[in-house]
Amino acid sequence: xxxxxxxxxxxxxxxxxxxxxxxxxxxxxxxxxxxxxxxxxxxxxxxxxxxxxxxxxxxxxxxxxxxxxxxxxxxxxxxxxxxxxxxxxxxxxxxxxxxxxxxxxxxxxxxxxxxxxxxxxxxxxxxxxxxxxxxxxxxxxxxxxxxxxxxxxxxxxxxxxxxxxxxxxxxxxxxxxxxxxxxxxxxxxxxxxxxxxxxxxxxxxxxxxxxxxxxxxxxxxxxxxxxxxxxxxxxxxxxxxxxxxxxxxxxxxxxxxxxxxxxxxxxxxxxxxxxxxxxxxxxxxxxxxxxxxxxxxxxxxxxxxxxxxxxxxxxxxxxxxxxxxxxxxxxxxxxxxxxxxxxxxxxxxxxxxxxxxxxxxxxxxxxxxxxxxxxxxxxxxxxxxxxxxxxxxxxxxxxxxxxxxxxxxxxxxxxxxxxxxxxxxxxxxxxxxxxxxxxxxxx
Length: 443
Ligand code: NDP
Hints:
This protein is of the alpha/beta class.
């Protein structure tokens, strides 16, 4: 049995009941074998055994009181996975589906993603099974403050810098950073995705979605085409989805869909983003309301966006939202590329099918790395007490996404096959972390 397969089997056995973590290990570890074959010293140094074991896992109680006076208890997590190349960096997810398995899968992916950006950031992730949906601002504030009462002692500008993810946007980050400041007395920029008026970076809000489209633009360019006139499907209607749709539209594509966990909207004239922003960013409403604003648009509470014929698919909601059956429909409809905005959007079976059928598939750890890259730029601005213009950050983001594509596609060509962007992203992200772990000794 190869080194990577042995570590895969051992790690799965050692971490039972963690299906999402097993899925990401199964996707990543075997693809590293060609590099490990060339670099036997990795096995001797136990690189993989150390990589799959988080440096630290923090699990804590988060009690809070709702508006009626009832007491609730949620569970908080922070998994500090790997700090070889820099402080732990990765978002916090607040969603009822969050478990240790979810956080470990996201944290493990984050190690590779952060390395691909070329910036000095290690991998971490956190969150809670708290559901901010339908809660009052006071309840969300109470939860965030209680969450920080524990988390503050584990984070800091040079140790661990959290950010947003599903269910954590500017409002939640404001409440958490406020409490962090109160408890530590530090105004040190720990947390990215902050509002602009207290240390946030221009273009951070747009970064993941815009970055995804910049990455997909490179894929289309390799196929000698562009976004102009393309039919694009976007799933989700949150931060990543909105700004992916915005950039694709700016580049001349027609975005046909958006969705939330209740259903999806198809607008044959192209999704009107001002309407989506109004419903989702201002009113915190449901996407079904879209059809009240736009004639010709339809709302479906069954099925998925992937049934709509398209040229490019951009999943931007959550993990495993695109399965084998969805992949079959995309292939039948001659879709050119699937680029992930959400993390691990696509099931392992669907990835295999897309790859076999010649649909170019970009894994999130490469294609959605723009968010964390601009977070690292926010950290740089905070420590230098600087504030860069939008165009400057956006230009850096474009450069970073182009570099990631180049690195991933060249690595794919060297170690696997052209367009095997999974192998390219995994090996590309692994190399730097591995080299640094070798240099820093057995820790
Ligand atoms: P948001 O909370 O802003 O939006 C999430 C969207 O996805 C909402 O429309 C939500 O619908 C939908 N959604 C969430 N869970 C489910 C589900 N189980 N089934 C169907 N729809 C669902 O999150 P983000 O846009 O920030 O994150 C989206 C994805 O992008 C996540 O996978 C995240 O890890 C990834 N990502 C985010 C980055 C960022 O910078 N924000 C960076 C890199 C990756 P509803 O409102 O009904 O729940």
